[in-house]
Amino acid sequence: MAALRIGVLALQGAFREHRRMLDGLGAETRLVRWPAELDGLDGLVIPGGESTAIAKLLAIHGMYGPLRDAFAAGMAVFGTCAGAILMARDIEGARSDQEPLALMDVRIRRNAYGRQIDSFETAVPFDGVAGGPVKAVFIRAPRFADLGPGVRVLAVGDGGEPLAVREGRALAVAFHPELADDARVHAYFLESVAGA
Ligand code: GLN
């Protein structure tokens, strides 16, 4: 099979780490900042970082329409943390000028974990990923608050809260898989979402 062409949205956040992981898995990667760079992609990663900053830059770069169009035309999208926030149809705790991309029928709550656990690392069993729980880093993580009927939960936390959700070619996780030394969630995206 030819290498999948995967873009990594590189406006703000942990895009280098994602790219490194995808390169390691044999994908043909490209950093994406402007609409024309979406051309011909099989998939796009929207990294974690600060969703208000990414939203602002998406607007400045004229990316909202082209990104939604590329998704509608078949491009897969994988959002992590702030990326997951932007993929939701509804953002609780959004800044007034923070427009969601609305690629998935989910509502998400920003900064849903208390202060003491602003940041932590754990391991979570992940549906469709073999070899035991995946390493997951949480940094001021959001929480999926409400899922539409077509949304499948792939991983849950200790309290039963969804940590990874999928709706067709849209995959969103509340944590940062790119910051742990474990590429299996990225491999899942390549094999089961972008390459499906
Ligand atoms: N709290 C951040 C936001 O709302 C997300 C944090 C992250 O991506 N690690 O954008």
Structure in words:
This protein is an alpha/beta fold and 196 residues long. Helix content is 23%, strand content 32%. It has helices at 15-24, 51-60, 64-72, 82-87, 184-194, and strands at 5-9, 28-32, 43-46, 76-80, 88-92, 104-109, 119-124, 134-139, 143-147, 152-156, 162-167, 170-173. Strands 2-1-3-4-12-11-10 form a seven-stranded mixed β-sheet. The protein has a three-stranded mixed β-sheet with strand order 5-6-9. A two-stranded antiparallel ribbon has the order 7-8. The radius of gyration is 15 Å and the shape is globular. The model has no long low-confidence stretch (mean pLDDT 95). The structure holds glutamine. Residues 48-51, 81-82, 85, 110-111, 139-140 line the site of glutamine.
Mean model confidence by pLDDT: 95
Return the string of H and E elements: EHEEHHEHEEEEEEEEH
Query: How many E strands?
Result: 12
Q: Could you give the order of strands across the largest sheet?
A: 2-1-3-4-12-11-10
What is the straight-line distance between the termini?
A: 12 Å
Report the uncertain regions: none
Strand content: 25-35%
What best-fitting shape do the alpha-carbon axes yield? Answer: globular
The largest β sheet comes out as: 7 strands, mixed
What are the distinct ligands in this entry? glutamine
Structural class: alpha/beta
Number of helices: 5
Radius of gyration: 15 Å
Classify the helix fraction into a percent range: 10-25%
